[in-house]
Amino acid sequence: MIKYLIIIIFISFSAYGFDPLADFQFAPEQPKEKESRFGGYLEYSARYAPKSGKLIQNRGKVFLEADYEKERLFFYASAYAYYDSAPEDWQGDTEILRLYEAYARYNTERLDITAGNMMLRWGTGDGINPMDILNPRDYLNPVAGARTDSRLPATMVQTVYAGDFFTAEAVFIPFAEVNELPEQGSPWENRSLNELRRNVPVESENKPDGTEGAARIYTTYNGWDAALLYYGGYADEPLLKYRNGSILPVYERIKAYGFNFAKGLSNGTLRGELAHKEGSFYGSGYTIGVIGFDRNFDNDGYLNIQLFTDSEGKEGRGFTYEASDKYFNGDLKAGFRGTHYGDDSGGFEVFSEYYYADGFTLKSGVMLIYGKPSTVWGQYSDNDYVYTEFKFSF
User: Fold this and answer.
1) Could you give the CA distance from residue 251 to residue 177 in angstroms, rounded to a whole number?
2) Which candidate, 130, 220, 124, places its Cα nearest to that of 167?
3) What is the DSSP pairing of strand 268-278 with strand 286-297?
4) Residue 82, Cβ neighbours under 10 Å: how many?
């Protein structure tokens, strides 16, 4: 029923004076010259948790990227390696060498085809995005400040067609990507999983063998952006089931239907999303809605507020917020941001970012996690941390 309601809402946008051709213009395609680029960054980051008196991150990282473009072809590849001494406390992974994004794109006037390992962000919000489920979450960095930092690339094929009235996009994921379980004993292992692992063997990996797919269609008219979205694949989080003397993470197939919009106003942007998800993982179904507003003040100040609610209860209701400003000719950005849920749990961060000369960045801040131990966020309240990060980009 919900999916038909979403379709009706979208059709209603088109029914009342909707003339997509009015504002839809295509610039003539310009010939592209051969161009290549190589770069990357060196980074050191540390997170200190005062309650435990331990570093929960102590990492040195090297990130490299390169791209090449000639006429209609574009190639991009990136990889990183790091050493983090903090996981030694829970016998986790201290050294990681990973191919990050690596893809090729073929561009035409109407059709773009991209294939490879990549990040693909869907949604209009800057906090809660119900349909941002194509890329799995990084269990080593689940509460990253920026959303892209908490996700990992996935292997996929993306096709985008730009028509006169709309743009259509289809995505095929040949190898299902889901969230891995956190390492045993790590600060981000949830309490119920920790208790299970103490009493019963728990398999760490059981990725599904199936494929995933998604599609969206979107258009723009008179400052309004509107989109319909569909996803058919697996729930990112597993159900833990007892089989043959051990606990096995089982990922159930789901379907998700979404609608989102964004409207530029004279002093900011209004954004909204609605999503309905079906499958045994969600029981009788799960619906969530988000409405938000963000504004820039004289290119320096920034404010963002989002309200969200769902069909399940207090844990899925709440708000996100962020406010920041720039100082010293824009070299220093400072502010605060957070998420608060209806069960009185959430996270609050005070942050600063200082950009010095060309390529040098210093970030620092405090992350506070609060709530009762029985809540989703409150179980990590011992992980309050102070952090710092030095980065040199080249």
Assistant:
1) 10
2) 220
3) antiparallel
4) 19
Q: How many CB atoms lie within 10 A of CB 182?
A: 19
Q: With b meaning 16 or more CB within 10 Å and e meaning fewer, what string describes 225-239?
A: bbbbbbbbbbbbebe
Q: The whole model's pTM is what?
A: 0.83
- Provide the terminal-to-terminal Cα distance of the chain, rounded to the nearest Å: 52
Tokens of 163: 């028509």
∠ CA 211-217-221, nearest 5°, is 160
Dihedrals phi, psi of 380, to nearest 5 degrees: -105, 15
State phi, psi for 314 to the nearest 5 degrees.
Answer: -60, -35
Tokens 């980009």 locate to 393
Q: State the DSSP string of 223-265.
A: TEEEEEEEEEEE-SSPEEEEETTEEEEEPPEEEEEEEEEEEEE
287-302 burial string, b = 16+ CB within 10 Å, else e? bbbbbbbbeeeeeeeb
Exposed, middle or buried, 204 (CB in 10 Å: 0-12/13-18/19+)?
A: exposed
DSSP label at residue 151: B
Q: Rounded to an integer, what distance in angstroms lies between the CA atom of residue 181 and that of residue 233?
A: 18
Give dist(CA 5, CA 228) in Å, integer: 12
pLDDT in tens, 139-174: 766 565 444 467 899 999 999 999 999 999 999 999
Phi, psi dihedral angles at 272 (to 5 degrees) = -155, 150
Q: At 76, phi and psi to the nearest 5?
A: -140, 140
The mean pLDDT of the chain is 87
Secondary structure of 35-63 in the HEC alphabet? EEEEEEEEEEEEEEECCCCEEEEEEEEEE
Cβ neighbour number for residue 339 with a 10 Å cutoff: 20
What does the alpha-carbon distance between residue 365 and residue 388 come to, in Å, rounded to a whole number?
A: 7
Rounded Cα gap, residues 56 and 251, in angstroms: 29
Distance CA 247, CA 193 (A): 10
**Vertex 377 angle, CA 303 and 192, to 5°:** 160
Give the pLDDT confidence of 186-206 residue by residue, as tens digits. 998 888 888 888 888 888 778
